[in-house]
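pls read this stuff:
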Amino acid sequence: MESMGYVYRNTETRPNGLRLYVCAVIGCYATAKQTINGNVTLMKPHTHLTPNRCVEGDNTNAYLIETLAFKAALKAKVNSGYGRLIDIYRSEAIRYPMGAANYPWTTACSLMTRMRRTGFPAQPNTLIELDSLFRNGLLERFCVNGHNMYRGYVASENGKAHLVFACHTLVELVLRLNPTNMYVDQTFRIVPPNPKLVQLITFHFEIEICNFPTIYCFMEDESPSSYRSLICFIKDMVLPGYCPRNIFSDINFNLISPLGYYYPTAYLDCTWFQHNQNLYEQMIKFGYSNLIMNSGIAFRCLKMLMVLPLLPPNKIEVGFEEVKAYASRMQVHMPRIFDYYNWHWLHLIGSNTISVYLKPTRTINNIEVFHKKFNRTFRNMPTVWTFLSGIYNLNSAYAAEADRLCSGGFPTKSFRCQLLYNNSKIKTHTQRLMTGELPIKDFILLCSEVLNGYEEHLRSWTIKMSMNNAFNNAVNGESSDSDVEANYDDFETSDNAVRGNLEQVQQQPPPPSPPPQQQQQQQQYEHPQQQQQQQQYESEDIADIMDHEVDSPASSESNDQPSRIFGYCMVCLTTKRERKYLILPCGHSWICQKCRDKDLTTCPYCREDIKCFIRVLETTV
């Protein structure tokens, strides 16, 4: 057979009509195949040109040679561990343009993924074995800009091992710019089952308007000595000479104590995000998951507890009593979560610590986005190689962002419309609370409606973590106690010890009070300053509130509440309906006409049967 200037001889004919050929020239091992339709495809290239100098045949042979060279280069780069797969493909496509045209990314992705998956060594059983793999140079694939992410092995006093990973590019950026805020996040507990890990700790740094996850710590134990050894290693070996001004961390005294010891000049604080996640985990631990999923009133009580940190410190206890009274009135029985919140958050932690009222960092939206990226990357029960690859891919993206900042570019940041809307609603309700137009009870109810999607995210997140923990316990042969059987032994920490830790880590003196003359001027220009701050709110970032606190009449006395009723619908919480209706016989007000037409049978406030509605014509309701 002759095709495109080359002569072939038949070697095999299959029952489906496929014919296989080899080149008739001695010493050339080119192969081709012919389908039943007569289409001829060159499989292996020729080592010689066509006898009659056929341009089509020579070009087809040259294209195949470059395509095979392109595939070989991709395999070599993947096996040696050079960056992300898409970056490898793009770099080699510049060298082999015709090979990239014949072998596109959609086809090469499967080959490269399979090569990377099968190119790892045997999975280690302990962190010490994983450390030896890095030290022997078998995992050079985890290099970002020519530097391996692995930073070292830390051994605690009790013999437990901990591994530290950090991107060299991001560490240099942190040491050069010296950011003021450091976030220590230990809420991501989806870890590989083998080698056995307890949790992952990440260190984030706020640069410009972005948070860069820079340091990752694999922990085998959560004892105080483990945290102390880990923080000491990070301060001396990873971030020498760096001292943040503010450290935001979870309320874990084993972690807070070494942070306060090694960073004595930093102010430690918690965020709304960590408060809510811890509260939801305890809700599941006490066995109230079915209650909040099946009861809308219990679900609202949970959201009302979550918004308590939005109140001023001197009003949080009053708001807590309002939530308890609301739950009692609605016949929602959750005594254990209320006792836990009162004992743990209000008395041990303190309202001054958990309050985010008028703080510049109310929540950490960037870390929440980081968690979502991790969630999409790992799914359930990841292997250690999948876990390290996910961290590596995320760090490669953040390293590119850091290079953009170093070259004088602007950071990229995405905003979600729902987050912007929720943030504007919270700002509006906070302003009304500051001016005394909104009582504490109504403020809690209105802000709780902002947390619908947020609670769903926490719910799916908690379920996924429980599945991962159960799988890890099954793999490691450990028994896990039921969450419903949790008791108060989990929170046995003496008041004196806890308060002593808080005094050690929060030694920063309060700001000096202004002189009497300055206080009079501040009170004189109080309302214009509030209007100016409200304009500043609209231009700030979604996670930002005001940089300084403003005195207001609402924060002077916690028990002074307006006696008049404020107008919002009890169902949809709107204030823009002209027609308002009272509910009889309970007399609670009010609902709008749109909600009245939904065939309500019970009062949304007291759950009493509705007999009829009466329209309200007074504009003061």
Observations:
- The chain has 23 helices and 17 strands.
- The chain has a mean pLDDT of 73.
